[in-house]
Amino acid sequence: MTTPERNFVVSVSPKYVLPIVILLTVAVTGCAQRVNAGPPPTRTPIPTFTPSPTYDVLATMVFEAAAATATAEAPTITPTPTETEVPTATPTETPEIAQVIIPRAVNIRSGPSTYHSVIGSADSGESYPILGKNNDGTWWQIDYKGQPGWVFAEIVEEKAVEDIPVAVNIPTLPPPPPTNTPTITPTPEFTPTPVYTPTPTPDYTYTLSNTGTCESTDGLPQFRGKVKYLDGSPRNMACVHIAFWGPRQTQCSGCDRAGDGNWGFAPFGDTAPGDTVVELFVVNCPSNGVPPGGQNGDFVNLTPLSPKWTHKVSGKELCTDITFTSED
To answer: Is 142 exposed, middle or buried (0-12, 13-18, 19+ CB in 10 A)?
Structure first.
């Protein structure tokens, strides 16, 4: 009767695997050294071990444990913190203000031309902000004491004028002053020199032999006189005319009980108008005679037969002794 062969499986704890391997290695080495010592010993059957997947697990665990130990024992290096650089603040540039600088005294005008009126002046060293320019950039518009003014670009210094715009509402160019057109003086036509003709002396038949006197009076303004012959005797029926503002009245000497050779006028009533000019002179008597009180209209011929007696009346006056003398 054959006894069946049994296979033994030995389970070894993982912690004993390494020592067992070492012991087996040493034993195999010792046996090899005693091969020549004598006959080989009778072989003792060694139990057959069936490989178990436990070795792979144990090996894996040994290596993982060793790695974990190495990892645990390795010192942790803490990196030194890098110092962060603080950025340097970049200063903001202040933009330049567009302006003109006056190098010498100049006129400030109301528009971009010398035809525009002068509104003021600027002295050397003064500066003014630039507001704009004209279309061709030859004049600057500036802030002149709170109002727009214009200055010629070539006679001033300027700063920061790269982006100056064309001004709005540029004053229009005034018309230039008129050019004096010479007036052609026409050549005067020849005018013959007039021949002097003396004014003929009136052919008076009476002279004004006495101008009389005038003085103020409380009564009516009056004019009195006489007509005489050359020998001084009174002459009646000679007509004397009074005129102011035109012909007024004719009377005859010696008429209306005036007395031989006497005549008189009271033409103004109570008071004569101021600055009234009175004329008295001898005239031809009407063909049908002088009516009582004198003739006041329908005068036919008032050609003077004597020089005129003239007087400007002022207020109440009495003029007497005005005398005309007949030459026949």
So the answer is: buried
- As a whole number of angstroms, the distance between CA 322 and CA 305 comes to 15
Give the 3-state secondary structure of residue 6.
coil
Kindly tell me the sign of the dihedral angle through the C-alpha atoms of 125, 126, 129, 133: negative
Secondary structure in 3-state letters for 265-325: ECCCCCCCCCCEEEEEEEECCCCCCCCCCCECCCCCCCCCCCCCEEEEECCCEEEEEEEEE
Angstrom distances, CA of residue 266 to CA of 223, 251, 270: 7, 12, 9
What's the half-sphere exposure (Cβ side, CA atoms, 13 Å) at 6? 4
Hey, what's the torsion of the CAs at 133, 165, 103, 126, to 10 degrees?
A: 110
Position 8 scores a pLDDT of: 47
What domains appear along the chain, each with residue ranges and CATH number?
Answer: 99-159 (2.30.30.40), 206-326 (2.60.40)
pLDDT digits (tens, 9 = 90+) for 169-191: 899 877 666 666 667 777 667 67
Q: Are 130 and 141 in contact (CB under 8 A)?
A: yes
Among candidate residues 224, 222, 323, the one with its CA nearest the CA of residue 282: 323
pLDDT at residue 37, rounded to an integer: 46
Give the mean pLDDT of the chain. Answer: 80
Whether 214 and 311 have beta carbons less than 8 Å apart is answered as yes
The residue among 126, 131, 124, 205 whose CA lies nearest residue 166 is 131
- Cα(91)–Cα(249) distance, integer angstroms: 114
Which residues lie across from 210 on neighbouring strands? 323
Q: What is the pTM of this model?
A: 0.41
